[in-house]
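RECORD TYPE: inverse folding
INPUT: C-alpha cells
STRUCTURE:
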C-alpha cells in the first residue's frame, strides 16, 4: 500500500480553528497565518467550517452523535425528562435498522419492516430534530461538533457512535485486505448492508463448509453469534442443504446460555454445526478462503467473519479514550457516564467504558438513566446511580420457533473496583413459550414501538 497523506479529524480541527478565526475577525485584524491557512484549505472543506443549517435552538441544546439504540432512546427521554431541552440527533444513515432481532430476520421469522424505521418519524413523534450527517470531531472548549454539513454548537454532547471492527486482532492489517474482507465476508454487526449480504449468502448457499466465528473480548450481544449459528443451521436444514457449519469460538467456551446452546448444537444440529472453542483466529487468507489459528488451518466455501470490536475511532482521534482499555473505550465516570473532567460530554452504548452487555436492550435501559443524569445536571441536581437492565432472547429453532432468555442487572463491587452480574434470571430451556416472549411480543415493543412511535400505552 502506498503511504497516502490523509487529513485526520484532529488535523481537520487544527486547520479549521485558524480558518474560523480568520472568518470571525475583522479584515484588518486577520493574521497572515490565518490567511495562509484559509488559502491552503481545500474548497471542499469550506462548507465544513460554516455553521450547519439547522433550526435555531429554543433551549439548552443537547447534541447526540449516533442513532442506534442508545442514541435514539437518549433523544426521546431527554425530551421527556426536560421538555425545555432542544435535542438534535445526528447519524450518517438515512434510516434505522436494528441489529437486535436481525438473526430472526435472517431466518424469515420477522419482516424487514420490524427491523427498519424512519429517523424522521422518531424525531417528529418525540419532539426533537434529526440531521443526517457524519460527525468528524468535536471541540470541548468552544462546544462544537464538526460534521460534513458544518458545525453544530451544543450545551451538552452525547457520544453514542457505536463500534468498529478491529481487523488487526485477527491478523488482517492491510487496509485493502480489511476492505476486501469486510465486503466479501461481513460480520453483520455494523452496517445494514452487511445484513442484506449475509441473508443472501444463507439462502443461496449451495453446500460445503460455511464458517462463522465468535470474537473474543466484549462485543455486541454476547449470545448473538451462537444464536446466528443456530439460525443458519435451521435455514440450511429447511433447505436440505448438504453443509457443515464450522463455528470457531475465540473464547474457551460458550460465553452465555452455555447449557441451552450446547444442547441445541447437539440435539438439533448435530449433523450441521461443528463447534470449536479456543480457536483464536490469527490470519485470514481471503483469496484462498481459509482462516488460520495458532495450531490449525480451516478452509471454507463461504463465511461470516465477525472480528473483535473496538470503540469508534471518533473517540480515539478526539483523545478521550481510556489508555488502559484494550478496546479503546472512552475515559468516563463509571456512574455518571461523562468524560473525566468534562460534565458536558457523555459517552453511552457500545463505546462506553463499563463492561455491561452491548446488547440493544441494555443500551435502551442505560440511555434512560443517562438522560435523567443530564436533565438533573442542567437543573443543578443529582440522581442516584441505577443499573441498566439486560434482557436477551435467543432463538435456536424455527420449525417451530423456540427460544431461551436471560434477564440481568449489574452491581459494583467496591472491594475489587469492578462491576459484576446481579439478580440474574436465566431460562436456558428453549421452547415455544420463550419464542412468544421474544418476537414480536410486547417486550419487543418496549424497545421498538415506543422508541420510534408513540408510547405503547405506557
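DESIGNED SEQUENCE:
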Amino acid at each position: 500500500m502506498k503511504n497516502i497523506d490523509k487529513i485526520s479529524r484532529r488535523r481537520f480541527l487544527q486547520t479549521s480553528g485558524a480558518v474560523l478565526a480568520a472568518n470571525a475577525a475583522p479584515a484588518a485584524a486577520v493574521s497572515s497565518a490565518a490567511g495562509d491557512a484559509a488559502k491552503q484549505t481545500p474548497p471542499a472543506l469550506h462548507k465544513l467550517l460554516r455553521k450547519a443549517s439547522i433550526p435555531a435552538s429554543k433551549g439548552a441544546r443537547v447534541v447526540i452523535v449516533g442513532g442506534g439504540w442508545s442514541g435514539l432512546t437518549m433523544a426521546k427521554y431527554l425530551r421527556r425528562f426536560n421538555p425545555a431541552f432542544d435535542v438534535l440527533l445526528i447519524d450518517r444513515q438515512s434510516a434505522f435498522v436494528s441489529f437486535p432481532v436481525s438473526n430472526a430476520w435472517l431466518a424469515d421469522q420477522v419482516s424487514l419492516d420490524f427491523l427498519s424505521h424512519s429517523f424522521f418519524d422518531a424525531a417528529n413523534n418525540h419532539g426533537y430534530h434529526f440531521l443526517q450527517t457524519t460527525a468528524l470531531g468535536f471541540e470541548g472548549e468552544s462546544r462544537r461538533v464538526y460534521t460534513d454539513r458544518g458545525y453544530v454548537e451544543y450545551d451538552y454532547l452525547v457520544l453514542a457512535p457505536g463500534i468498529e471492527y478491529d481487523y488487526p486482532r485477527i491478523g488482517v492489517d492491510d487496509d485493502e485486505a480489511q476492505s476486501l474482507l469486510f465486503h466479501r465476508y461481513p460480520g453483520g454487526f455494523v452496517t445494514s448492508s452487511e445484513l442484506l449480504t449475509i441473508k443472501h449468502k444463507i439462502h443461496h448457499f449451495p453446500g460445503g463448509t460455511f464458517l462463522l466465528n465468535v470474537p473474543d473480548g466484549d462485543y455486541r450481544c454476547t449470545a448473538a453469534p451462537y444464536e446466528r449459528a443456530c439460525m443458519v443451521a435451521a435455514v440450511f436444514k429447511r433447505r436440505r442443504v448438504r453443509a457443515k457449519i464450522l463455528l470457531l469460538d475465540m473464547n474457551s467456551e460458550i460465553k452465555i446460555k452455555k447449557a441451552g446452546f450446547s444442547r441445541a448444537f447437539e440435539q438439533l444440529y448435530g449433523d450441521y454445526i461443528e463447534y470449536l472453542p479456543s480457536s483464536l483466529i490469527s490470519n485470514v487468507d481471503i483469496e484462498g478462503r481459509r482462516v488460520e489459528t495458532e495450531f490449525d488451518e480451516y478452509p471454507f466455501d463461504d463465511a461470516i467473519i465477525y472480528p473483535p470490536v473496538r470503540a469508534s475511532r471518533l473517540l480515539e482521534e478526539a483523545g478521550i479514550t481510556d489508555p488502559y482499555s484494550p478496546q479503546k473505550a472512552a475515559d468516563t465516570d463509571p456512574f455518571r457516564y461523562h468524560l473525566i473532567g468534562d460534565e458536558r460530554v457523555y459517552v453511552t452504548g457500545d463505546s462506553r467504558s463499563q463492561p455491561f452487555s452491548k446488547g440493544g436492550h441494555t443500551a435502551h435501559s442505560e440511555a434512560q438513566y443517562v438522560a435523567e443524569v443530564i436533565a438533573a445536571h442542567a437543573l443543578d441536581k443529582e440522581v442516584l446511580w441505577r443499573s441498566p437492565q439486560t434482557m436477551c432472547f435467543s432463538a435456536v429453532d424455527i420449525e417451530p420457533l423456540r427460544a431461551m432468555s436471560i434477564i440481568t442487572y449489574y452491581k459494583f463491587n467496591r472491594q475489587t473496583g469492578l462491576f459484576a452480574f446481579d439478580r440474574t434470571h436465566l431460562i436456558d430451556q428453549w421452547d415455544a413459550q420463550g419464542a412468544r416472549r421474544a418476537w414480536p411480543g410486547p417486550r419487543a415493543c418496549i424497545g421498538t414501538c415506543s422508541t420510534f412511535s408513540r408510547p405503547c400505552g405506557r
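NOTES: Confidence is low (pLDDT under 50) at residues 1-8, 17-31, 441-449, 454-458.
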